[in-house]
Amino acid sequence: xxxxxxxxxxxxxxxxxxxxxxxxxxxxxxxxxxxxxxxxxxxxxxxxxxxxxxxxxxxxxxxxxxxxxxxxxxxxxxxxxxxxxxxxxxxxxxxxxxxxxxxxxxxxxxxxxxxxxxxxxxxxxxxxxxxxxxxxxxxxxxxxxxxxxxxxxxxxxxxxxxxxxxxxxxxxxxxxxxxxxxxxxxxxxxxxxxxxxxxxxxxxxxxxxxxxxxxxxxxxxxxxxxxxxxxxxxxxxxxxxxxxxxxxxxxxxxxxxxxxxxxxxxxxxxxxxxxxxxxxxxxxxxxxxxxxxxxxxxxxxxxxxxxxxxxxxxxxxxxxxxxxxxxxxxxxxxxxxxxxxxxxxxxxxxxxxxxxxxxxxxxxxxxxxxxxxxxxxxxxxxxxxxxxxxxxxxxxxxxxxxxxxxxxxxxxxxxxxxxxxxxxxxxxxxxxxxxxxxxxxxxxxxxxxxxxxxxxxxxxxxxxxxxxxxxxxxxxxxxxxxxxxxxxxxxxxxxxxxxxxxxxxxxxxxxxxxxxxxxxxxxxxxxxxxxxxxxxxxxxxxxxxxxxxxxxxxxxxxxxxxxxxxxxxxxxxxxxxxxxxxxxxxxxxxxxxxxxxxxxxxxxxxxxxxxxxxxxxxxxxxxxxxxxxxxxxxxxxxxxxxxxxxxxxxxxxxxxxxxxxxxxxxxxxxxxxxxxxxxxxxxxxxxxxxxxxxxxxxxxxxxxxxxxxxxxxxxxxxxxxxxxxxxxxxxxxxxxxxxxxxxxxxxxxxxxxxxxxxxxxxxxxxxxxxxxxxxxxxxxxxxxxxxxxxxxxxxxxxxxxxxxx
Length: 805
Ligand SMILES: Nc1nc2c(ncn2[C@@H]2O[C@H](COP(=O)(O)OP(=O)(O)OP(=O)(O)O)[C@@H](O)[C@H]2O)c(=O)[nH]1
Description:
globular
């Protein structure tokens, strides 16, 4: 049986329930206290669809505004986008519209859009009328459905709707090609090598599932996915060269259609006149009833009870698709093992890498997909009706007419029972695809789910912290919209011994399951410290302290582990901090804050940076000031003598030895007051810098900020080598010999990458015993795949040409 991988992303305002929807869909679980997503989380679930399996690669994005810039990496290449709003919040519906606009402008051309009005269990306090959503969905040719993650209403139907829309697109596409007399092979030859919607070819399917569930070219890193089904004929036509083409006869699909209204072209161009009118009264299923259905009330043992929606409507699952000649997109999976098991990690095992996380051990492999996927026709009827009666959970299927053309077929299905009082037939998609949990074979793969029911959420935990705590991204400290002061590299240089910087690589999970603590500490400042410096700025108006990346390793064990890295925790739960010694500077070597040593107007003496051994550290300002002409001035000028400035080029200011560097840019932050440097300061300074008062000291905060920015830019010019291709990368590793090589995989469009970069560069200045390189993932796709980079930014370490753990 062929497996088709479909990248799906969820977009929408924060708090609308995106994560809850995914959680319900993948895990059949609802968490009242679910934390806001940070960055994004990733889950997979495979469901049967006709004669093939559709494996959803689901990217649940963070709805908070500050993560907006990350979204493109998730919707890029997506086959479908689920845009979620909260029916009790009008604002969230506006936000949804913005997302749709963005998708139309920047998303894949034919991305399937599904609008989900979540929290329909709260319809008594609804702010968004269903009618509005339907009209809007119609206007953009989207699927629309009201859902409740809480009560498990229409969640599976939502995805099944997407499933079918995509499937229909393929079908149409195939037909089109046939009409045009196109040679399938030649068409395929024109298709991109990588696709977010691809078929896996049989023989290797199991192997792939067990060892390489996540394609190496993980989603956002792969080329744009060949466009999927949406509405426009034109668009579909243009997809020809990009679309998968099934070599199987259409006759292989109909079984699905008979029980399952297929999205047809007209489906894609919704016309509500023809679509079933919602008849809440007739189609409603009381929530109590829903919650009582076994599927919703009972957590299934996923490992043993594969659950599949489609199975109930696709009794011919066992049919095997004949792969087309070009095996790139097809894998003929004769009888795939239960993907779920395939992917699940062994209980108690801490997966060591993203792959491992999802990878199963042979001993766990298990159920023949036959069992897990195949349904019994006799099971179908019992549920469809219930499903159809769902109160708020109708799926509005534009273009019902297109589906009704198969009325004769559908009439044999339980949907018949969904007839409204008015005699209309309501055929929510779910009807055709839904079965009760208890009877459904669980989609073979809650892939990332462990046997304990844990969900590995990439990125989420890696950067997640509780909202009530701090905010969590490095950029927060730099990019505050609320006028927060920029917090430059302070912490990367100033971490305390106990907070040693462990290096910027969250992603540097060790294969042995170690977790490397990345920049957390290096970026994170202690409150007590920051309060003394302008970096207090990192505190939000609400008093929150932004803690970058900290949470990447802070996920609570009791919670779901949401990130592949989480799984890198050792069985003992230890977190290894291997880089500590090699990277972190010793306390004794650390320079003190400049502000400690510089005298303020009020008579405080600002001493030149001096460490315990008497070394004098020159603040970076000097180095930055060498570019004075270009840079905006900052208050730091205030303690530099105009007549006697010692301009130090960046290099000069960058000591060759660890600890010789004092100073993160913030060191240059000076008191707002006018500063007068007494003569003794000049004496203390090795360079004899005599700091005089200056009106520059009165420069507004903005100047300082721009100064910091400039400093960061300066740092960015530091000692990081930009890798152009795989060959160069290998060369660097080779030349490095015994030296540690730190690699930053990033992309220009990636916000977090941009935020991390200065820190990475600052470390490069600090650790001359480490070779720092940067790989632009856009330029080096092959390298990215080879290095198994699954998210951005990713930091990896190499030693002796091997990935270093
Ligand atoms: N009543 C009700 N509450 C829900 C439903 N879905 C989610 N919630 C609650 O809404 C809140 C936010 O849910 P999330 O799933 O975290 O929302 P999100 O859209 O992922 O939020 P971000 O991660 O910040 O983007 C949580 O308290 C959930 O328990 C639902 O269907 N009904």
